[in-house]
Amino acid sequence: MADTGRLDQPRARRRSLRPRQDADRLGRFSESFARFMGTATFLAWMTLVIVVWIIWNSSWGPDRPRWDEYPFIFLTLILSLQASYAAPLILLAQNRQESRDRVQQEQDREATAQSHADMQFLAREVASLRLGIGEVATRDFIRGELRGLLESLEDDDRDDDTDD
């Protein structure tokens, strides 16, 4: 009878020859790459490389081996290759940002709904307090009633004094 393993025990972990890959690694790289490509530093370095390339490979530069004569086909190829890799990385970074924005909007929507519910509850509470206060005798009302009673008692005493 073959041993199929026990169901109440965890299996031994199998070793894999493939390295563990972080699923989010490419996304983080694409975001940092897109962020760097949008800086003045990137533009300055790219401009410097292109200017040096053109000067080196043109007749303006000193006599030395030139690997990319005018019309600079190799430079065009490299820039096209860079653009072909940059575009998908930028799109990936935008998709990740869109996902984060969607989550943030959902959280904002939930917070707004909760705030709205809280405000409605508080409005109902304030309305019920106003109704309750309308039924409660205020201090001024009681003072006025007591003054009226006091005046009526004084009037009754005066009337009794005048009758004697």
TrEMBL record:
Species this protein is from: Aeromicrobium terrae
Keywords assigned: Membrane, Transmembrane, Transmembrane helix
Residues that span the membrane, as ranges: 33-56, 72-92
Disordered, as annotated region: 1-20
InterPro entries: DUF1003
Keyword Acyltransferase belongs to the record: no
Pfam families linked to this entry: DUF1003
Biased composition (Basic and acidic residues): 1-11
This protein's name: DUF1003 domain-containing protein
Keyword Flavoprotein on entry: no
